[in-house]
Design goal:
about 260 residues; alpha/beta; six-stranded mixed sheet; four-stranded antiparallel sheet; about 35% helix; globular; binds adenosine-5'-triphosphate
């Protein structure tokens, strides 16, 4: 279980995260939503140990800041929004780097098979020998997701994982993340801007507003016209799909 207790963080004088308290459970996928610049990425960075705030991030009761970097890397996979820079690496090598905590100079056959399996699972095995920087934005995104998954973490943190993906790939990706969350009992936290996708795939939704938790709970209780007006400043109706999943129909921005 992942617990965040009284977490606050600031880059400078302005507080970005303000006294956040949340619990994320194994086998469940949580979507963190909210307008731009409300602190979603910062929250994931604090959970992953990249940033240190005030308060506690507890993994099964252990403060992650007390773990060594290898210990954190073994438990937590974090997919950031940042790109690959200018690295001259093949797709295979990029994904293999996801196993860095268990690699030695001579790469074992089992590690190679691990990488091949995840490439196949994501349908990107044909890209294995390509240079990462020569791929399209969507292909690159798939590779970094493969890198996050190949680590076999217990906590999976994905910052806008469906960025740059077409609609088919987007659905495929969220279905895979959901399926892995259940089958591997992962504690999965994703930031998303697509509210209908959050409603369909997340077990719980956390709404961040100006660095604070505005609401947290099941999609049907969190996605309301009031929340959309107050947090997103849009007038919207919320319908129900045939299977009961909320559907957000935004109508206009609130002036
Ligand atoms: N490295 C940094 N140094 C200073 N300020 C930063 C830094 N990174 C982010 N911020 C600021 O912190 C605030 C929250 O940023 P963050 O990236 O967490 O928001 P977000 O909710 O993920 O936004 P988006 O939906 O646009 O990706 C913003 O005001 C941003 O400008």
């Amino acid at each position: 279980m992942l617990e965040i207790s009284n977490l606050s963080f600031s880059y400078g004088p302005q507080p970005i995260l303000k006294n956040i308290n949340l619990t994320f459970r194994p086998g469940k996928m949580t979507a963190v939503i909210g307008p731009n610049a409300t602190g979603k990425s910062t929250l994931l960075k604090c959970i992953s140990g990249i940033l240190r705030g005030q308060g506690d991030v507890l993994l099964d009761g252990v403060n992650i800041n007390s773990l060594k970097p290898q210990g954190i890397a073994k438990e937590i996979s974090y997919l950031s929004q940042e790109g690959c820079g200018k690295a001259v690496l093949s797709v295979f090598e990029v994904v293999l780097l996801g196993r860095v905590h268990s690699l030695s100079l001579k790469v074992k056959e089992a590690e190679i098979q691990h990488v091949l399996k995840i490439l196949k699972q994501l349908g990107i095995e044909k890209l294995a020998a390509r240079n990462i920087c020569e791929l399209s934005g969507g292909q690159r995104q798939m590779v970094f997701i493969a890198q996050a998954l190949v680590r076999e973490p217990s906590i999976l943190l994905l910052d806008e994982p469906t960025n740059s993906l077409d609609l088919h790939r987007e659905l495929e990706m969220l279905e895979l993340i959901k399926q892995l969350t259940i089958s591997r009992n992962l504690t999965t936290v994703v930031t998303l801007h697509q509210l209908d996708m959050a409603a369909r795939y997340a077990d719980e939704i956390v709404v961040l507003s100006d660095g604070e938790v505005y609401a947290a709970g099941q999609p049907t209780t969190v996605l309301t016209p009031d929340m959309l007006r107050e947090v997103y400043r849009v007038n919207a109706a919320v319908y129900q799909a045939g299977d009961g999943v909320p559907l957000v129909m935004a109508m206009n921005s609130v002036k």
